[in-house]
Specification:
alpha/beta; disordered N terminus; six-stranded antiparallel sheet; six-stranded mixed sheet
Length: 379
């Protein structure tokens, strides 16, 4: 049955966790596959599944998810040639409720130094997530790779009513994709958004952003664009450790969320090249981005940095301070772990000029308040 499941999933395009349409051929095939609990005859993949508790996400919906940590060393000799298949069954606790099935494929990183495949401390992160309404749910997850190795885990979650209005009914399940985003609606002015693609909470050595990292980044960006009151958005996504821009759009619109999701899922955090380490510093890299921003002929009405707080670093150079003074109002939506107390590079840059404002975001309500304040200030 495991081989059937692998073949079924490999036939479907896409990488994000997708809800299978009820009554479809794929739904029937997954239903049959999950009827037979994995019997242990498959070779073990040696993966660790870490469920997340249900939590309100940064789009103010209930998000449930998981991380799958797989040692890269297990793919040293085999299994790299094809994607990894992931199937999820979610059964509501409501009497008579039908189970929902979701699926995805995860890519095995290839553009990394050959010696990394033999390292013991490096892990791939294959996390995902989905949305639920209020209620209790049983989650079953099955992972399989091209070498017929598999792992299985089941657990229970509960979304408790906390008085926050959501779009889903009790016991309802939905994928957390962004294909339904229709673009900016109304508003006025232009915003330049600089998103820092980094882990929300530091953890063991991994090669990927976790499912929660991606949910926080994408959900925060969507809330900013939906509620910020702008007519146009320029979006640039960068990675400080790698000193690289990984995504940019001069006019962020319909369909770009899915493209950004693909980029974030494919981002390799496992290694930083020697050329990068001996090259420009993080401040020089950030200064380069701001040079391009200040040189625009059609200036934005605001610059918004968005992302997890970065580690502390040296003081700002005079050049960075001079560039900061040339920019329009600058804001920092700092997605801040509760234990973070340091002032990072972006925060110091934002504070170095007029009109700079830091918004520490610990939870979704903080984000809503920050976006509202940005909108009121600019208007």
């Amino acid at each position: 049955m495991g081989r059937v499941l692998l073949l079924v999933l490999m036939c479907w395009p896409g990488w994000g966790l997708v809800l299978v349409r009820l009554g479809s051929r794929q739904h029937r095939e997954l239903e049959k596959a999950f009827e037979a609990t994995p019997n242990g005859k498959d070779r073990k993949m040696m993966c660790t599944v870490m469920p997340f508790p249900v939590r309100p996400n940064f789009e103010f919906q209930f998000w449930a998810g998981y991380d799958i940590a797989v040692p890269v060393k297990k793919f040293e000799k085999e299994g790299r040639e094809r994607a990894i298949a992931i199937a999820v069954k979610v059964t509501p606790g409501e009497p008579g409720a039908k189970a929902s099935y979701l699926f995805s494929r995860a890519g095995v990183p290839r553009k990394i130094p050959p010696q990394v495949w033999a390292m013991k401390g490096v892990e791939m992160n294959l996390g995902g997530g989905f949305l639920v309404g209020v209620g209790k749910y049983k989650v079953q997850l099955w992972v399989m790779d091209a070498a017929q190795r598999s792992c299985y885990r089941e657990w229970k979650v509960e979304a408790k009513d906390v008085g926050v209005p959501t779009k889903l009914a009790r016991g309802e399940v939905k994928d957390s994709g962004f294909e339904d985003w229709e673009g900016l609606q109304g508003g006025k002015g232009t915003v330049s958004v600089y998103m820092h693609a980094a882990a929300f909470v530091p953890r063991r050595i991994t090669t990927k952003l976790s499912a929660w990292d991606r949910a926080v980044l994408l959900g925060s960006l969507r809330s900013l664009l939906d509620v910020g009151g702008f007519a146009r958005a320029r979006v640039k996504v960068f990675q400080l450790d790698g000193r690289q821009v990984i995504f940019e759009r001069e006019e962020f619109g319909k369909g770009d969320f899915e493209k950004l999701m693909d980029v974030l899922m494919g981002l390799n955090l496992g290694t930083v090249s020697y050329e990068t380490l001996k090259g420009p510093s993080e401040e020089v890299f950030l200064t380069g981005l701001m040079k391009e921003e200040s040189a625009r002929e059609a200036r934005s009405d605001a610059v918004v940095f968005l992302g997890p707080t970065a580690r502390s670093g040296p003081k700002l150079s005079p050049l960075a301070r001079e560039l900061r003074a040339q920019l329009p109002p600058v804001f920092y939506l700092a997605l801040t772990p509760w234990f973070s107390v340091e002032s990072d590079l972006i925060e110091r840059f934002v504070k170095a000029g007029p009109g700079g404002k830091i918004h520490s975001v610990y939870q979704p309500t903080d984000l809503a308040k920050a976006i509202r304040e940005i909108r009121e200030r600019l208007n």
